[in-house]
Amino acid sequence: QEWRFVVEETQGQVQYVYAQEFADLVSEKSDGALTIDVYEFGALGSEVDQVEQLTDGVVEFAIISPGFTGTLVPEGNIFALQFLFTDDQQMNQDILNESEAINEHLAPLYEEQGIMPLSFWTEGAMQWTGNSELRTPDDFDGFQMRTQESPLILESYSAYGANPTAMSWGELYTGLQQGAVDGQENPIFFIADANFNEVQDHMTISNHNMYVTMTTANPDFYNGLDDDTRGIIDEAIEEMRERGFEIQEEQNNDFLSQIEDDDENPTEIYELSEEERDAFRELALPVRDYYRENGGDQAAEILDMLEQEIEDASGEDIG
Ligand code: 6CS
Prior knowledge:
alpha/beta, D-Maltodextrin-Binding Protein, domain 2, 10 strands, binds ligand 6CS
């Protein structure tokens, strides 16, 4: 058997390393009978093209970020809500692993659209970069913010007064360089590895949200597998939960110094205080109501349930 696995990142980046290790595990467990070829970002098109390749069965596996499926599965916009999850990434990953809201209620909505989530996982906390300082909501006034496709990500930045524009990350370096957009959000490893710091003067440690992605399979393919083969896939997915967390944690830790030490392209790094984060949190809260109303039939129920799960896990009132 030879299957295809497409990811949204390039060689060496978190999703690619994850997919390669997943492929190795599946090969080992099947004594070499099952082979998975990993396709890096750009090999088969844009992130949105890749969603279609999975639903069409052109590829068997894909890593798909909910940020690119917001119109297909409106309830999946939930991950665009800023300041919803905790600041503890390990706790967030545990919530993703165990959440009934996500795994029992949201996942089937993806499956109906031809995307079968096998696991939801974090690629780390996201930070802002800009060609100007981003410390208060006023700094976002009229700011041209690049985002992924999902309507709620755009809505979240509109709430800060920004002018968000959706764009593939394949065009983002040039977009920042030529001033088509002023800034963007991503985990530190990605900012550094995609060299966005070369074309940005400021980075704000905002931890305003975590980057969530999904390991997915084409449902017809997955459901058509015999029990033994499906068992191998499921085992490999389970083993990759912890590994995926380690891969992103390591890269996010290691790459900060690459940005700090790049003397040719200096970046001013500023960490928001809790008070400064509160000013954004306050503007982000009403976006949850927007999600409840516009995030599809099950949005309100899924968000209520997830909020409760986050409060139970963290022991904190999250609004
Ligand atoms: O900003 C983006 O669109 C990209 N960021 C990450 C961390 N992974 C892939 C995604 O397309």
